[in-house]
Amino acid sequence: MYAVAARTQGAAVIEVPLGKGFQVDVDALLARVTDNTKLVFVCTPNNPTGALVPLTAIAKLALALRDRALVVVDEAYLEFAEGQVSASALIVQQENIAVLRTLSKAYALAGARVGTLVAHPQIVALLRRIQAPYPLPTTCVDAALAALTPVAIEEARQRMRLIVHERERMARALAQASGVLEVFPSSANFLCARFADAASTYRALLALGIVVRDVSHYPQLAGCLRITIGTPEENAALLGAIGQREVAA
Ligand SMILES: Cc1ncc(COP(=O)(O)O)c(C=O)c1O
Question: Is 110 in the pocket of ligand 1 (CB under 6 A)?
Answer without folding.
Answer: yes
